[in-house]
Automatic annotation (TrEMBL):
Name recorded for this polypeptide: MFS transporter
Pfam family for this entry, one: MFS_1
SUPFAM superfamilies membership: MFS general substrate transporter
Source organism, top-level taxon: Bacteria
Parts of the chain that traverse the membrane: 21-44, 56-75, 84-102, 108-125, 145-167, 179-199, 219-242, 254-273, 285-303, 309-328, 349-373, 379-398
UniProt GO molecular function: transmembrane transporter activity
Organism this protein belongs to: Flavobacterium franklandianum
InterPro entries: MFS, MFS_trans_sf
Length: 429
């Protein structure tokens, strides 16, 4: 066992310095992601008991993200990418401070906190995606995202359970509120630490200064459609587990325990897939994630009880990293190809990609809100996830098309490769 661990450590150390620093930065920041994703939603639920406010908060976040992607393109002309990346991480702590300082959770306060968190995520993800593209290639991207997802999943075991236990150890609403304040302070300190680690890298800004275009290659439009389907689930899936657990399981302690079920197994599977899978395996990995997500969502809709929630969370813990492990390398490979064809900077596509995600997020969150206000809260929680999960199965066909068309192009030059033309045509048919 120790020999295998040394081998894996050696493989990590064989990567470039910037590869290692980016992974370490994201690992530190990953300590706060479960807090942001789950317990902010739990805080809103605890203090308002209104699931629609959770979704509205999420919509505010998703509105802030694309605006900040645009702003980041301008800021990159004047500031080093490390400063912007660090600012994004630290703003997440500021957003939590705003939320905890609200005396009443009205829509205005929730909206301000959500927009601030959106600004944080926009700076974080736009710069993180560019750096991941810049320091990796198609051969080591499975490993990069497998390792990153492995760490995220391991952290997702300890953090929700620990925070859930900490909150539940307090008695009375005043003590529980104080617990949330303490957690917020710790989050802010962790974001500062992640920023310090980030500055150990020698990351460079994108060279091209123009990022906004309105016409793209057909391959890019296919990826945008795939991004829209991905955004469907993101629309409220981040906060859906918290809402389901509060409705059907009860408290934050149950929330932490439920999120930890199956996480160790999921982490090991994802790491091994990232370490040893090939680019040609991405469709299989992506399809497996989509099917597991759809299965869990449908079972939750059919049962809609404690068992259904636990099964859904267990399958989601495996499905989400599987989908991400395949999706991000597909996205970056398309950017590699299309940026060469159109002779544009890579950040152009990172910025434009957010538009596809945002459209999907609006549709996903909108689906929940329409069902919530037109029928009932229980109906929305029970069936919205299943509807979206089944729609996402279309992503299998779209991703096959993308990879097949992408294989037509030489990895080094943006020209059709005649050697694979006939083979790819057969696959498309």
């Amino acid at each position: 066992m120790l020999k295998k661990i040394r081998t894996e450590m050696g493989h990590f150390k064989s990567q470039t310095h910037n590869f290692q620093i980016l992974i370490l930065t994201n690992m530190v920041y990953a300590l706060v992601l479960p807090v942001i994703d789950i317990f902010v939603a739990a805080y809103i639920m605890r203090n308002s008991s209104d699931t629609s406010k959770v979704v509205i908060y999420q919509l505010a976040i998703y509105t802030g993200i694309p605006l900040t992607f645009l702003l980041n393109g301008f800021l990159l002309k004047h500031f080093n990418i490390r400063k912007l990346y660090s600012a994004g991480m630290m703003l997440s702590g500021v957003s939590m401070i705003i939320m905890m300082s609200l005396k009443t959770l009205d829509l205005t306060g929730i909206g301000i906190a959500g927009i601030t968190m959106g600004l944080s995520f926009g700076l974080y993800w736009s710069n993180r995606d560019y750096l991941a593209l810049a320091i990796t290639n198609d051969e080591n991207r499975n490993y990069y995202y497998g390792l990153e997802t492995f760490m995220y999943t391991i952290i997702a075991i300890a953090i929700p359970a620990t925070i859930g236990w900490f909150i539940q150890s307090k008695t009375g609403e005043a003590e529980k509120h104080t617990a949330y304040l303490i957690i917020t302070g710790i989050v802010f300190l962790i974001t500062i630490t992640a920023s310090i680690v980030c500055f150990r890298g020698s990351f460079e800004n994108p060279t091209q200064k123009k990022y906004i275009f309105f016409k793209f290659h057909s391959l890019w439009y296919k990826l945008l459609s795939l991004a829209t389907f991905k955004g469907l689930a993101q629309g409220f899936l981040v906060t859906a587990p918290a809402m389901l657990i509060f409705k059907l399981l009860g408290e934050e302690g149950a929330l932490g325990k439920a999120q930890s079920i199956g996480a160790v197994l999921a982490a090991i599977i994802i790491y091994l897939l990232g370490r040893f899978s090939k680019p040609s395996d991405r469709i299989k990995i992506f399809s497996a994630g989509l099917v597991l997500f759809a299965l869990g969502a449908c079972l939750n809709g059919l049962l809609y009880n404690k068992t259904g929630v636990i099964v859904f969370l267990l399958l989601l813990l495996i499905a989400k990293p599987l989908m991400d492990l395949a999706y991000f390398p597909i996205q970056l490979k398309v950017i590699d190809i299309v940026s060469r064809i159109e002779k544009r900077g890579e950040f152009t596509y990172i910025l434009n990609h957010e538009a596809g995600l945002y459209l999907g997020r609006l549709l996903g969150a909108g689906t929940f809100l329409v069902l919530y206000y037109s029928i009932s809260e229980d109906f929305a929680l029970r069936y919205a996830i299943g509807i979206i999960a089944l729609l996402q199965l279309c992503s299998v066909y779209i991703s096959k098309n993308i990879i097949a068309e992408g294989n037509l192009f030489s990895p080094d030059e943006p020209v059709i490769n005649p050697k694979v033309m006939s083979e790819v045509t057969e696959k498309l048919v």
